Triosephosphate isomerase
Amino acid sequence: MRIPIIAGNWKMYKTHLEAVKLVQSLWYEVSDVSGVEVVVCPPFTALRSIQTVIGMDKMNFKLGAQDVYFEEEGAFTGEISPLMLKALHVDYVIVGHSERRQYFKESDQDVNKKVVAILAHGMRPIMCVGEPLEIREKGQAARYVEDQVVNCLQSVPEDRLGDMVIAYEPIWAIGTGRTASPEDANEMAGHIRRIVACIFSEPGFQKIRIQYGGSVKASNIKELMAGPEVDGVLVGGASLSADEFARIVRYRE
Ligand code: 13P
C-alpha cells in the first residue's frame, strides 16, 4: 500500500511571515484528515519558521525544500546543503523541477547528484521529470521521460526506493491551466514505474511513489487521483490558497 502524497510547491512566493499564516490556515482546514501525507515546500527563507510552527502546533505536515546543492559544505556562494536542510528537519526535497532545468540550466547529471545526496542525508527526494510540448506533439514523451528517469536514478540504492517520489510534471501543463488528462497522467505514471522495475531487481518499484503535477486544482484532483498508478500530486499555484489546497487534500470526500 502506497500512502498518497500531496505536496504544495510554493515556488518563489510568500515571505516567511506570509508562509506562517498560510500553513496555519491550512492546518485549521485539514487537521482532521488522515491517510494522506501532506508536504509543504516553502522557499528556503521560510523553512525555519515553518519548522517551528509545525513543531509547536504538532501539525501533521511534512516539511519540504524546493532544491538543494549536492555538496555538504564549501565555497559555493548562494547554495544550501543537505546538512543544512536536515538540521531543519526537512523531510522531502524537490529536485529537477522543470523551472530549475529551464532557467538555471540543471542537467539530469546535476539532478542525479542531488538525489543521491538527499538520500545519503536521510531525506526523501521528489524528483521531477516531464516533457516539453514539442516533444509531446511529436509522440516522443515516453522516451523523453524514460531518459530522464534512467539518468536521474543512477546509483540510487535499491533499498531506498520506498523513500523516492517521482513527480511527472509535463512542462506544458505547469501554470498553464492545461492539465494532462487523467488517462495520460496514469499512463505515464505506469510507464515510469515500469522503467524503475527494469532498473532495479528487487520489487522496490512497488514502493516508489509517483505524483502528477501541472495545473492540479480542487476541481480536477479527484479524477487525477483515480488512476491506480498516480500516488499523489505536486501542486503549484493552487497550493498558495489554504482553501483551495485544503480541498485538494480532502479529495476523497
Ligand atoms: P502549477 O500547479 O501552478 O501548474 O505548478 C505545478 C508545479 O510546477 C508544481 O511543482
Observations:
- The CA atoms of residues 173 and 179 lie 5 Å apart.
- Residues 5-249 form a domain with the TIM Barrel fold (CATH 3.20.20.70).
